[in-house]
Amino acid sequence: MHAPSSPAAISISGLTKTYASGLTALNDINLDIRPGEIFALLGPNGAGKTTLINLICGIVKPGTGSVLINGHDIQAEYRTTRSLIGLVPQELSTDAFETVWDTVRFSRGLFGKPPNPAYIEKTLRALSLWDKRKSKIKELSGGMKRRVLIAKALSHEPKILFLDEPTAGVDVELRRDMWEMVRKLRADGVTIILTTHYIEEAEDMADRIGVILKGKIILVEEKAALMAKLGKKQLSLQLQVKLDALPPELDGTGIALSADGHELVYTFDAHADDTGIAALLKRLGDLGIDFKDLQTRQSSLEDIFVSLVHAQ
To answer: Is the dihedral of CA 191, 90, 181, 199 positive or negative?
Structure first.
């Protein structure tokens, strides 16, 4: 468990952002992110994920409210807070005519860090960029440019790393390399906040999940608790003989017939003392309904996310 006395890596209070157009992109956000955790921020397009990240990183000016990075205010102590943060943005925007090495070295210098060729070499090697260190950015593939953005974000050894849709449209190899690096950074105490469309990545990587919708945080939960609380289990029974309709004796039992009539699906709470499966199977036997196969399925984080969004 995290000691309650340790200050939050990021502490957001009453944060609201309304653009000149009248659009409220963020609406009274209150959120603490713990030191050394991987926090996944999920939400549909336009929910406010990128606005929130850009605001914390100082790219977008805040409206009302406050953001503290390791106890430092992002407006009053901008240089201090910005030097603690690394950002891997969605867009591929890098200096096309610079070499990979010079781009990453320059980025480190921007944050006032002394030269450290050994650290830059280690970072480039970890991202499979070492062989490309003398190549100009414009000569690189999209996947390699994405790797350069990650190297730039890590160039000044940040304590907090934002990954905004880091694996959207990238190859499997880069995705694997990146998550390996994320795990190493987290082991070194770096706090990581990621947004992703690949919900299985959040399911695999995150300690906690936050869901943002229409500029509001609608849920923040430990991943394991979220999966236990909202994750239902389903029992699927493949029938020997197709059913045209669900027998009236099965009404109200929580069982549903698939559209093609070949499968019965029973949704149950895996944590209940009595799941009701034994009684259900006996009832099917009494009704002469035979099945040739059965399997259980746990609802995924994606199922939970979709149900949360639809419930709003």
So the answer is: positive
CA dihedral over 125, 128, 131, 134, signed as positive or negative: negative
Q: Kindly report, residue by residue over 26-62, the tens digit of the pLDDT.
A: 999 999 999 999 999 988 888 899 899 999 998 888 7
Provide DSSP, 156-210. T--SEEEEESTTTT--HHHHHHHHHHHHHHHHTT-EEEEE-S-HHHHHHH-SEEE
Strand partners of residue 281: none
Residue 140 zone, left/alpha/beta (φ > 0; ψ -120 to 50; rest): beta
Amino acid residing at 252:
G
- Structure token digits, residue 155: 């160039």
Q: What fold, for 231-311?
A: Alpha-Beta Plaits (3.30.70)
CATH 3.40.50.300 residue ranges of the chain are: 10-228
